[in-house]
Every structure is written in structure tokens, then in C-alpha cells.
Amino acid sequence: MPNDDVLHRLQHLGFRLPLDALRDFLEDAARERLSPLAMAERLVDLERREREARNLAARTRLAMLGKFQTLERFDWNHPRKIDRALYERLHKTLDFVERAENVLLRGPSGVGKTTLAQNLGLSALTHGYSVRFCTLAGMLADLLRRDSLPAFERRLRRYARPRLLILDSC
Q: How far apart are CA 45 and CA 29, in angstroms?
């Protein structure tokens, strides 16, 4: 059983891994009799994954995607005229973000446009892009509440700063 003082000192140094994960790691390393180098490599890898997960979670919250159905559960048979191959290419490559091109998902209400847009946003987040999701009406109302041009311009930057801005019509 590792000394809790060592665990707390690691966290004091800035390790983000939870105490339980650090404790489990040290116990496994002792049981496996890892060399100091192997132990350091694994610990660095664990810490990197923890930081990446926390970073993604924070950026996802800031993106304001909300709750949505992932693509694994999306009913591709419902929207009859969707170009699934095109959407999947957009979702996988995100090349439209690099080229600063717009993607317009249009169709009748209830076919899944918002869900598909949110999934594009999540894909962009996992690839390191900044994302902002909002309704067009909400964005316009937010901008129009500004009482001066400088305040309006500051607020406008909030919408212009992300690499991917998703405007929903709802």
C-alpha cells in the first residue's frame, strides 16, 4: 500500500490523476516490479490521458453542445435523403473547418439536423478545435442586449473566436 503522503505530494506538484488512480498505479507498479524508467513512462502516460480527458470535458462544457444522441444511436433510416457518406466524411476529416467553409444542414423539422450538427461539434472538439453551439435567435438576442458598440464587439468575439461555430435554427 503506497504512502498517502507521497500521493498528496504528487497532487501538490500538479498531478491531476485522482488519488485512487495514483494509488492503484503505484500498487500495480510494485506488484509488476517495474523499473524506474517504465514506472515513470506509465505515470506520464496516465497523467497525459487524464489531462486530455479533463481538457476535452472542459472544452465540451464551454462549447455548450448540450445533451444529444451520439451517431451510434442515430437512426439513419429516418431522414431519407441524407447523404450519409458525405456526412461521415465531414465528421471524420473535418476538412471543412480547416478550409473555413460553411456546412448547411437543411430539411424539415425532426429529421436530426441538430443532432448531426452537435456530433460534428463533438468530433471537432476531440480533434482539438474550439467549438461554440448556440441558436441563431439566442446569439442575436445576446448581441442586441449590448448597450454600446464596444460591448457589442466584445460579445461578438465570443462567437467569432471558436474554429467551429454551430448555429441552430431552433
A: 14
Residue 170 has pLDDT above 80, yes or no: no
CATH number at residue 119: 3.40.50.300
Domain carrying residue 45? 4-63
| Helices and strands (H, E) in the chain, number of each type | 8, 2
The secondary element (H helix, E strand) that includes residue 168 is strand 164-168
- Average confidence score pLDDT of the chain: 91
pLDDT at 79 over 60: yes
CB within 8 Å of 105: residues ≥ 6 apart: 113, 116, 117
Residues 140 and 158 in one domain: yes
Rounded to whole angstroms, the Cα distance separating 39 from 27 reads 11
Q: Rounded CA gap, 47 and 31, in Å?
A: 20
Are residue 125 and residue 146 in the same domain, yes or no? yes
| Residue 90 confidence (pLDDT) above 90 | yes
pTM (2 d.p.): 0.75
Task: Write out the DSSP string of 27-67.
Answer: HHHHHHT--HHHHHHHHHHHHHHHHHHHHHHHHHHHHT--S
